Amino acid sequence: DAHKETRGFQTEVKQILNLMIHSLYSNKEIFLRELISNASDAAEKLRFEALSNDALYEGDAELKIWIETNPDARTITVRDNGVGMSREEVIEHIGTIAKSGTQQFLKSLTGDSAKDNLLIGQFGVGFYSTFIVADKVTLRTRRAGLGADNGVCWESVGDGEYTIENITLPQRGTEITLHLRAEEDEFLQDYRLRSVIKKYSDHITLPIVMPKVTTNEETQEKLIEQEVINSATALWVRNKSDITEEQYNEFYKHVAHDFEAPLSCIHNKVEGTQEYTVLLFIPKRAPFDLWDRTNRRGVKLYVRRIFIMDDNEKLMPPYLRFVRGIIDSSDLPLNVSREILQHNKQIDTIRAGTVKKVLSALELMVKNEPEKYETFWQEFGKVLKEGVVDDHANRDRIAKLLRFSTTLDDNPKPSISFEDYVSRMKEGQNKIYYITAESFTAAKSSPHLEIFRKKGIEVLLLSDQIDEWLVTHLHEFEGKPLQSVTKGELDLGEMETEEEKQEVEKASTELKPFVERLKEVLGDKVKEVRLTYRLTNSPACLVADEYGMDSSLERLLKAAGQ
Ligand code: ADP
Ligand code: MG
Question: Where is this region: A (predicted)?
Fold first, then answer.
C-alpha cells in the first residue's frame, strides 16, 4: 500500500515560499548551499545516533554527499547517506514551519524587497530555497534503521501542495532532485556547480563528490570517477592563518543558518586541564526568535570532530544565547550520552571557559572596534544585561560591558559605560544615580531629575524591562553604590551648599503646619509627606520608599500578574 496522499503546505510556508522566490532570486545559487548544509546535518545526526546503535550504519559508515546533473532531464540531484526521514518526519519537517514566532516574523515583512531579503535570510529559508530555481522538487528518503520498504517519496511544484507516498528504497538517506525552471540551465554546467560548492561549502566536513568523466588515452574508453570537490576537513582544526575570512563566513552561515556574515569570530584552541577548540561567532543581527529562551540551536558540541549535541543551555548561559558556533573537545568520551552530559564536570569547565572567551572577545571589541561594539550593543545589549542577574561569577566584567543613556546628552542610543560615568562624577558625589521608567522619554522627562540637572549631576536613564532586575542585582560598581533618584530621602551629601541646607531647614519650620495638613488629607494613601529640594520646576512628586519597590518595578510585577 503506497498510501499516496496530497497535502497542503501550512499557510506560513506558502507565504514564505512566495516571498523567497521573489526576494532571493538575485542570490539563487544558495539553494545548493542549503541542500548541502541539510545533508551534512543529517550525517551528523546519524553519527550521533550510531554512537549508541552501530546497526544504524547498515554496514556503510562512509558518509558522503553526492551531486549529479542530468542535462537531458534537466535535473540536479543531491544525495546523502545520512539519517534520512520517516514518513512522519517528512510531513513534520518539510511542508511545515515549526519555528515559534513565524506569524510575527511574517507580519514584520515590509514588502520592500531589499529589507525583506535580509529578514528572510535571518529566518533561514533552508529547503524551500530549492523552489527559486526548480519548478518541481522530488525528495526520496529512508530513515536509517527502518527497512527498505519504509522509503518515502515527497513531491511538490511549490504551489502550496505536495504529494507523499511510500516507496521501496534500499539505501538509507535522502535524495533530492530539482527539476530546473526553464531559465536555470546554468546550473547544469559542471564548472558552475563546482564553483558554487567550493565557494559555499568547502568547510563541510563530509566529502562532497561529483562524477568526472575521463577518457583513457590508449583505449579511448570513458571512465567515470568520483571526484571530491571540497576540502572535507573540519575548518576549526586548521590553522587560523590558513583560513580565509570568506571561509569563516561560510562556515558561520552553515552553523548559524544565517545569510549574513557574522559581526565577529572567536577561534581558539584551549589547553590545560581540558583541551578543546572553540570556533564561535557573534551575529550581526539579532535573530527573529532571540526572545525565545527555549530556542536551543546555537552552539554545537563535538568530540574529536564528531557531533554530539546542540543543547545550547549546557554550553552557553541563556544571556549568551546569541552566540553561534562549535566547541570541539579532545577529552570527553565519544560515547557520552545526553544524560551524562547533563551533569558533567568537564562540560561545566568547558562552559565556564567558553563564557570567559566570549566576554574577552567583547572586551577586545570595545577596545579595538568600538563601532562594532555599538552594533553589538544595539542588537544584543538587552540580552547581555541578563548576565548581571544570572552570572554572579562574571558580574563585574559584564557590568563594564553595559551601555546606558544618561542625562549627559539625553541620547536615546545607549553608549555610556559605568566607567565613563564614574570618571565624570562630581566632587563629593559617591553614588551612581539612575532612574527607571517605562520608556526613554518618560525617564528623561521625569521631575525627579530636576535637581540633578540643575546641579549637573549625571543620571542613568534606564528604560529596558530588564533594567528593573538589573538594578536589584547590581548594587554597586567599583565601590560606588547605585542609587535610584526616585527612592527615599535624597542625600546629595557634600554636593549641597551650606546655603541650600539652611534654606531647607528654614522652609521645613515654616511649612510644618502645611505638611501636617497634607498628611491628614491624604491619610492612608501615602506613607509620608516630606518637603523636598529635589524639584526645581514641579510642585510635587511621588517617591518610593527606600526599601520599597520602585514604581516601575511595581508596574512590571502588576503586568506579570503578581
Ligand atoms: P533547517 O535546516 O534550518 O532545519 P531546512 O528547511 O533546511 O531547515 O530543513 C528542514 C528540516 O528538514 C531539517 O531540520 C531536517 O529535519 C529535514 N531535512 C532536510 N533535509 C534533510 C536531509 N537531507 N536529511 C534528513 N533530514 C532533512
Ligand atoms: Mg537547513
Answer: 1-338
* Residue-wise burial string across 118-134, b where 16 or more C-beta atoms lie within 10 A, e elsewhere: ebbbbbbbbbbbbbbbb
Tell me how crowded residue 184 is: count the other CB atoms within 10 A of its CB.
18
Helix or strand holding residue 269 (H, E) = strand 264-270
Q: What is the pLDDT of residues 423-444, one digit of tens each?
A: 999 988 899 999 999 999 999 9
ipTM: 0.99
As a whole number of angstroms, the distance between CA 267 and CA 150 comes to 42
- Is 440 annotated to bind a ligand? Reply is no
Probe target for ligand 1 pocket from 44, 127, 143, 258, with the most ligand atoms within 8 Å of CB: 127
> Which residues are near ligand 1 (CB < 6 Å)?
34, 38-39, 42, 80, 82-85, 93-94, 124, 126-127, 174, 257
State the pairing for strand pair 5-8/161-167. antiparallel
Burial of 149 (0-12, 13-18, 19+ CB in 10 A): exposed
Residues 6+ apart with CB under 8 A from 153: 138, 139, 140, 163, 164, 165, 166, 167
Handedness of CA 32, 33, 37, 38 (dihedral sign): negative
Which atom of ligand 1 is closest in space to residue 45's alpha carbon? 25
Atom of ligand 1 nearest to the CA of 126: 7
Question: What is the helix (H) or strand (E) element at residue 246, kind and residue range?
Answer: helix 245-256
For the stretch 148-204, pLDDT in tens is: 999 999 999 988 899 999 999 999 999 999 999 999 999 999 999 999 998 888 889
